[in-house]
C-alpha cells in the first residue's frame, strides 16, 4: 500500500498541448503511462469505437499488449493488428498496399481509426494508409521513439519512399490526437534515444536562449533516460514544432515557417545519403553533425558569434552524439557531399540553401551561400 500511495502521490496528470489548425486542430498528450488509458483518451475525439493498429515487429511485442488492454477497457474493438518489419524499408509501396488490404479486409469503414504504434516509420506508413484508405480515415499517432515523439508525429506529414529518394510520395493528414507516452521510451535502445535528442537540440536552437540553455543543462540527464527530462523535452519540442506548423501547415513559405525546421538537415541529409539508409548513420546522428556544421557555417559567414559553434558541438558531444565530421567513423568526399546538397529538395535555382543562425532563436534561410565557403568548411572539418 505504501508503494501504491507513493505512486498516487507522484502521479502527474498528462500535459495537453493544442495544435491549432482550424477544423483540423488536435491535442498532443504527453506523460508516463498513457497506453494503459488510451481508450479513455481516444474516445472523445474519434467517431466510433473501432480501430486498426499498425506497429512493427519490435514495438508490437513490447507495447501492443498494454495499448490493446487500454483500448478494450473503454470498449474499443480492434479489427486488425497489422505488424510490419522494423526499419526504413517498410516505408514503400508494396508494404503500403499490404497494410491497406489488411485494413479493408478486416472490415474497416469510414469511421474506423488507424492507430500508429511505433517510430517514424510506422507513423509515416500508417498515416499515409489512413490518408488514402476510403479517401481518408481518422488517424491517431502513438509514437514510441523520441524522434517520433518530438518530431514526426506532429505536423501531419505522412508518406513512403521511392527508389529515387526518401519521402517523395505522401499526403498531409493530421492526426485526431497524439499520445506521447514517455514510458515507452524505456525500451528504446540508447543510441536511438540519443539520435532523437538531436532533434530536441535543434528545437532548442530554433526556439531561443531559454530552451537551448535547458538543453545544455538537462540534455545529458535526458540521454540517460531520466523521465522528467524526457517529458519536458517532448512538451517543449512539440510546443515549438506545433507553433511552426500552425503558421505554415503545408510548407508553403520558402524562407520561414516549416523550412526553418530543416536546420542542420542540408548537411545531415547529404551525410545520411552518402552512408545509405541502412542504419550505419542514424538520421539524428547526421542531424547532430549537421547542427555543428550549420553553426560553424553561420559563424564563418559572420552571422553569429564565434563562440556559438563551440557551444553547440561541445553540448552534442557531451550527450554522446557526433557533432563534427571527424567524429564519424568514416571519411567523406567534399565533392560527393556538395553534389548531394545541390540535389537537396530545398535547393532552388542551383544556389546552395541553408538554414543559418544569428543565435539561439534567430534562425533564417539563406539561399545564396557560396559553394566555396561550404567547401572550405568541409575541408577544415577534416572531410
Ligand atoms: P523507426 O520508426 O525506424 O524506429 C527506430 C527503431 O526503433 C526501429 O527499429 C523500431 O522498431 C525501434 N523502436 C521503436 N520504438 C521502440 C521502443 N519503444 N522500444 C524499442 N524499440 C523501439 O525510426 P524513427 O527514428 O522513429 O523515425 C524515422 C522515420 O521518421 C524516417 O522514415 C523519417 O523519414 C520519418 N520522419 C518523418 C517526419 C514527419 O514529419 N512525418 C519527421 C521526421 C522523420
Ligand atoms: Mg529530421
In words, what does this structure look like?
The protein is an alpha/beta fold. The chain has helices spanning 2-10, 38-42, 59-73, 93-105, 120-132, 146-152, 190-207, 209-223, 227-247, 265-275, 283-300, 308-318, 334-343, 371-380; strands spanning 15-19, 26-31, 50-56, 77-84, 113-118, 139-143, 157-162, 165-172, 177-181, 352-359, 362-369. The strands form three sheets. A seven-stranded mixed sheet has the order 1-2-9-6-5-3-4, sandwiched between helices. A two-stranded antiparallel ribbon has the order 7-8. Helix 7 runs antiparallel to helix 8 and helix 11 packs antiparallel against helix 12. The mean pLDDT is 94. Magnesium ion (MG) binds at residues 151, 199, 265, 283, 287. NAD(+) binds at residues 120-124, 144-145, 157, 166, 184-187. Its cofactor is Mg(2+); NAD(+); Co(2+); Zn(2+). It is found in: Cytoplasm.
Amino acid at each position: 500500500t505504501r508503494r501504491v500511495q507513493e505512486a498516487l502521490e507522484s502521479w502527474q496528470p498528462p500535459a495537453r498541448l493544442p495544435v491549432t489548425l482550424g477544423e483540423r486542430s488536435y491535442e498532443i498528450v504527453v506523460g508516463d503511462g498513457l497506453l494503459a488509458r488510451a481508450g479513455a483518451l481516444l474516445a472523445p475525439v474519434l467517431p466510433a469505437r473501432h480501430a486498426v493498429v499498425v506497429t512493427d515487429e519490435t514495438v508490437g511485442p513490447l507495447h501492443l499488449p498494454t495499448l490493446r488492454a487500454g483500448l478494450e477497457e473503454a470498449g474499443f474493438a480492434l479489427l486488425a493488428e497489422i505488424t510490419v518489419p522494423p526499419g526504413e524499408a517498410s516505408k514503400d509501396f508494396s508494404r503500403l498496399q499490404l497494410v491497406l488490404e489488411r485494413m479493408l479486409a478486416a472490415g474497416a469503414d469510414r469511421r474506423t481509426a488507424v492507430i500508429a504504434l511505433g517510430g517514424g516509420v510506422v507513423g509515416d506508413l500508417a498515416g499515409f494508409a489512413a490518408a488514402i484508405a476510403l479517401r481518408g480515415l481518422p488517424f491517431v499517432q502513438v509514437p514510441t521513439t523520441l524522434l517520433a515523439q518530438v518530431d514526426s508525429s506532429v505536423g501531419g506529414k505522412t508518406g513512403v519512399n521511392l527508389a529515387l529518394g526518401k519521402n517523395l510520395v505522401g499526403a498531409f493528414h493530421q492526426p485526431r490526437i497524439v499520445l506521447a507516452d514517455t514510458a515507452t521510451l524505456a525500451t528504446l535502445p540508447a543510441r536511438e534515444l540519443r539520435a532523437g535528442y538531436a532533434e530536441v537540440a535543434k528545437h532548442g536552437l530554433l526556439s531561443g536562449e531559454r530552451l537551448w540553455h535547458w538543453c545544455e543543462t538537462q540534455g545529458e540527464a535526458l540521454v540517460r533516460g531520466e523521465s522528467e527530462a524526457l517529458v519536458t523535452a517532448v512538451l517543449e519540442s512539440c510546443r515549438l514544432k506545433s507553433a511552426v506548423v500552425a503558421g505554415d501547415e503545408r510548407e508553403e513559405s520558402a524562407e520561414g515557417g516549416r523550412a526553418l525546421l530543416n536546420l542542420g538537415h542540408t548537411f545531415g541529409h547529404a551525410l545520411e545519403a552518402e552512408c545509405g539508409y541502412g542504419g550505419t548513420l542514424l538520421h539524428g546522428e547526421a542531424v547532430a553533425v549537421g547542427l555543428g556544421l550549420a553553426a560553424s557555417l553561420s559563424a564563418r559567414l559572420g552571422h553569429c558569434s564565434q563562440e556559438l559553434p563551440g557551444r553547440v558541438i561541445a553540448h552534442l558531444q557531451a550527450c554522446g552524439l557526433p557533432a563534427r565530421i571527424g567524429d564519424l567513423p568514416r571519411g567523406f568526399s567534399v565533392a560527393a557531399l556538395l553534389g548531394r546538397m545541390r540535389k537537396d529538395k530545398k535547393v532552388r535555382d542551383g544556389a546552395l540553401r541553408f538554414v543559418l543562425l544569428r543565435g539561439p532563436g534567430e534562425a533564417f534561410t539563406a539561399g545564396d551561400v557560396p559553394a566555396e565557403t561550404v567547401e572550405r568548411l568541409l575541408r577544415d572539418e577534416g572531410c
